[in-house]
Amino acid sequence: MTYQLPENYVLAGNYGTANASDWGTATALDYGTANAGNYGTANAGDYGTATALDYGTANAGAWGTATAGFKGTATAGFGGTTTAGIGGKISIDYWDGTRIRTKVGYIGEDGLEPNTPYKLDETFNFVKA
After folding, report:
1. Taking a C-beta distance cutoff of 8 angstroms, is the pair 61, 75 a contact?
2. Would you tell me how many other CB atoms lie within 10 Å of the CB of residue 70?
3. The pLDDT of residue 64
């Protein structure tokens, strides 16, 4: 079941899809997909996909995929893949054997390229997905 809330905020139930236009917010629960327009925010539950355009923020749950546009921020859960545009930031959660940690990278630094999907290797370093 999908709900359309005021001011371009969209929420989708399990196995649902949520979309929002410019300056909107889209949220999808487990196994969902969330997309947001420019300046938007997209969140998806576990195994979901979240996509946000320019200046947006995208978050995805475990094993999800997060993509953000120009100067956006993309965050993915355990085992996830993340992508950000020029000037963006990427981060992926991982378990180091003792605690949950977050690997953070900045596009344009340490060889990270814009609009390129990254995941973590066995030693928790970013590698192209």
Report:
1. no
2. 17
3. 77
Q: Are strands 41-44 and 25-28 parallel, antiparallel or unpaired?
A: parallel
Contact by Cβ (8 Å): 72, 59: no
Count of CB atoms within 10 A of residue 89's CB?
19
* pLDDT at residue 19, as a whole number: 66
Write the CB contacts of 111 (distance below 8 Å, at least 6 apart in sequence): none
Helix (H) or strand (E) holding 1: none
Check if the beta carbon of residue 21 is closer than 8 Å to that of residue 38: no
Give the model's confidence band at 6: pLDDT under 50 very low, under 70 low, under 90 confident, else very high. very low
pTM (two decimals): 0.69
Phi-psi region of 15 (alpha: psi -120 to 50; beta: other; left: phi over 0): left
Q: Is the pLDDT of residue 2 over 90?
A: no
Please state the separation of Cα 127 from the chain's center in Å: 17
Q: What mean pLDDT is predicted for residues 52-69?
A: 75
With CA atoms as reference, report the closest residue to 106 among 61, 71, 78, 77: 71
Q: Which two tokens stand for residue 98?
A: 């003792």
- Residue 105 pLDDT > 90: yes
